[in-house]
Amino acid sequence: MTALTDIKDSELQCILDALLVAAVQIHEEVKSGNGLDVTAVSNVSGDSQLTLDVLADSYFQDTLASNTQVRYIVSEERPNLVAYGNGDYSVSLDPLDGSKSAAVGIPPGAIFGVFKDAQQISDFNGQHIVMGGFFVFGINLEVYFSLHGAATTGVWDACTNSWTFRRLPDMPTKKMIAINASNRTKWNPWLQDYFDGLINHEDENGNSFNLRWYASMVSEIKRLLLEGGIFSYPSDKRPGYVKGHLRLVYEAIPMAYVLAAVGGKSSNGDASILALQTTELHQKTPVFLGEAALITEMEKAKKGLGLGV
After folding, report:
1. In the Cβ-directed half-sphere of 163, how many Cα atoms lie within 13 Å?
2. Is the pLDDT of residue 229 over 70?
3. Is the pLDDT of residue 309 over 70?
4. What is the pLDDT of residues 136-152, one digit of tens each?
5. Burial 286-297 (b: 16+ CB within 10 A, else e)
6. Most CB contacts within 10 A, which of 80, 138, 195, 257?
7. Distance of CA 135 to CAs 62, 143, 226, Å?
8. What is the model's pTM?
9. 96: which strand partners?
10. How confident is the prediction for the chain on average, in pLDDT?
11. What is the DSSP string of 28-89?
12. CA distance 206 to 117
């Protein structure tokens, strides 16, 4: 496995290497097309599981469990906080994000966070995270992550069995919204007004915001990093969505950490995702990620201070 020469902490390098090894194994499973059948059980959040969800979780658990640097491994697919050792670092996993979309050809992926000195559930927060990122299991196997505030991307070369890494530039700017607009009537009125304003407002060149929705968070955030815009998964009036749908520990915090490293911003509508308190392992939250100016305007809109776009 190719090491990043500027990772000063050998323990973090070992954890990253374990994640990279598991990702290669999972990518092979995804390419084979196996495991897209629904199992007879659901995960702790009530989401139906695919066989591939379970396989991906096992691959990550197996590679990480042999690391003496790891204390806890927590997963979206498992109910409890499980201790594996006495190391300084703990890992959170969404082992297969967007698995249902994979059945129709949209790339799935995996999301990970590494937290230092996490002694209890409340420590899995934005103050303790030191590495966060995600894999994309597409035509290529890609990784995007932030370590101590520096953003990096990598591509796996199966011919040479090695990764090639490069630094990510600051987030670009683009008039793009990623949101499931089919739920618009279930959103809070302020959110309906905010996005109506973005879509209906034309700039001096006659351009307004475009809508995109892959139903795969990793694919959405990859595009966000490469093109810019805003990603939104808000709360809404549907049962089970009142507090949002994405998990704070497994999805929101790691992605917010990556966005912060490229000059982006995160929010639950009121405050930064990285400033939120974690009270439950599978806690849900509304999630807004994107260009700092757009997130700031969204928070103002929620407070009734106008759009300013």
Report:
1. 23
2. yes
3. no
4. 999 999 999 999 889 99
5. bbbbbbeebbeb
6. 257
7. 17, 4, 15
8. 0.93
9. none
10. 90
11. HHHHHT-S-SEEEEE-TTSPEEEHHHHHHHHHHHHHHHT-TTEEEEEETTSSS-EE--S-SE
12. 51
* pLDDT score recorded for residue 308: 40
* Average pLDDT of the residues in 272-296: 97
Contact 141, 19 (CB under 8 A): no
Report helix, strand or coil for 144.
strand
Residue 5 has pLDDT above 50, yes or no: no
Strands (E), the chain: 38-42, 48-50, 70-75, 82-83, 89-97, 109-116, 129-137, 141-147, 150-157, 162-167, 176-178, 210-212, 230-233, 246-247, 264-267, 284-285, 287-291
Dihedral in degrees, nearest 10, Cα atoms 153, 3, 256, 247: 110
Q: Residue 235 in contact with residue 200, Cβ under 8 Å? A: no
Map tokens 């990859």 to a residue: 222
Instruction: Decide: 256 and 149 in contact? Cβ < 8 Å.
Output: no
3-state secondary structure of 101: helix
Would the pLDDT of 307 be above 80? no
Give the separation between CA 90 and CA 72, rounded to whole angstroms. Answer: 5
Structure tokens at 203: 């700039």
